[in-house]
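Board notes, transcribed. Complex of a protein with V47.
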Amino acid sequence: MSGGEGVRVSPVVLRVAPELGEVVRKVQAGERLGPQDGLLLMRTENLMAVGQLANEARRRRAGNRVYFNNNAHINYSNVCAIHCRFCAFGRARQEPGAYTMTRGEILELAQTYAQAGVTELHIVGGNHPDLPLEFFEATLRSLREALPAVHLKALTAVEIDHLANLAGIGPEAVLRRLQAAGLGSLPGGGAENFSPRVRALICPAKISGRRWLEIHRLAHGLGIRSTATMLYGTVETAEEVIDHLLALRELQDQTGGFQAFVPLAFHPRNTGLDYLPGPTGQDDLRMVAVARLMLDNFKYLKAYWVMLTPRLAQVALAFGANDLDGTVRRERISHEAGATSPQEQTKEDFLRAIREVGLVPAERDTLYRVVREYPA
Ligand code: V47
């Protein structure tokens, strides 16, 4: 963050949370926060003070617009060769409930969504043991030919790594081939928490955090923008949250290729970690606020209503978030893990949620170009 002007942190913050004095000073001076500042923000009992600081940082960095888009998710297959303990979506090939869509089915569903006006398809699935790179090239090509105006945000770094292994080539070559076939950007899934300790406990067979970052770096180098995420509410410590955010901030300093950050609230139901309670509502808000304060080089921070519920996502707009993701339409990954949010939000739902809290709605495309502005 640069320049201290415009930060209006109420003196009440300092009175009720004196331990944040140095952090408040840094935010006001536009100084970058370090790991110890992050830990203070994670640990202070005064969540409202953290929220107020983050709200001011959001206002200064990104203004009063709150963004959303008209998008749809297509989860092409739940067949997955790695069995992450936090996931309720993945299935072994022969397991009841396993499904894989054909290219024709994906195209047909995409066309239905396009008729409803979507500008983005978010296409992700499991690490399918026998869907080769050629399947994804052909699928993206048919989608691009049929729907040239729709942005294809497809395949997480985990799937890119898997396709590279199947094809016996490197991830950069995979990204180049997919880009030539119509890939527009990479979604942020699969980051979880980068800590090797956390990964060993919750997703031991998944690519490392280092590999996830390397694939996003390669994508940025090819001009493919991407999203950053972090799963929270499993077994991570406050230090591991801050380290994850700092790793994202460092890569963003180097490439500028991340468009947005999305904290993902763990949903335990039907997962191998169903004995965990999952994050509290206060954890959800703290994660949004801490991310806004630590990620000073990210302009957009999503309150992902699918995992937060639309009501808490609206509250998160006062804790540093400035994007509500999109209409989504049909989501399986968190709903299979117990998410209680609806399957879809309409444009009117977003307009109402944003206006009710005095902010200004803007419909965007995937690359954050404003498609339509609305009065406050
Ligand atoms: O990759 C899986 C996580 C991700 C669970 O790129 C879980 O703009 C909570 O990545 N509880 C999928 N989280 C969602 C995702 C996403 C969502 C919205 C926008 C963007 C973007 C990306 O959700 C998975 C995994 O990291 N996840 N299981 C669970 N039980």
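The longest strand covers residues 225-232. The chain has a mean pLDDT of 95.
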